[in-house]
Amino acid sequence: MTFTVDDARAYIAKVRWQFAKTMPQWPHEYTVLQWRQDLEPEFRAFVALIRGDGVVKPWPRDSSSPRYHHTYLELGEWEYWTMDERIDETILVNRALLPGFGLGVDVLPAGEEERYR
User: Roughly what angle, to the nearest 10 degrees, separates helices 5-14 and 40-53?
Assistant: First the structure.
């Protein structure tokens, strides 16, 4: 059975998303496989969808020498990515609001302060 974008949306709605407090300068959330081990097949399928249908982007985006190149999948207002090399070793999925969307915080280029609405 193929894991679709609609399946991904259903999975996203079922899991807990935690704000990454250790990186407030780059607002994002994450979910951890361990929090919903009963959904491991969906978690793995979602990771595979991110890797298969996503687009590789540099991070930080405005850097002349980015630290990372992750595969990002855009769904609605969010982009999703993982950091592990292998799908079977991946234990968390990150997400961040796409530019232009926000919960009162605009994500700005490095070196600029966050603006609050």
Answer: 130
Expressed as residue numbers, the domain containing 54 is: 19-100
Q: 54-101: per-residue pLDDT in tens?
A: 998 877 677 787 777 889 999 999 999 998 888 999 999 999 999 887
Q: Decide if 1 is inside a domain.
A: no
Q: Locate 28 and state its tokens.
A: 């994002």
Higher pLDDT, 35 or 113: 35
Residue 59 has a pLDDT of 74
Please give the C-alpha separations between residue 27 and each of 42, 59, 96, 107, 114, in angstroms, as whole numbers: 25, 13, 7, 7, 10
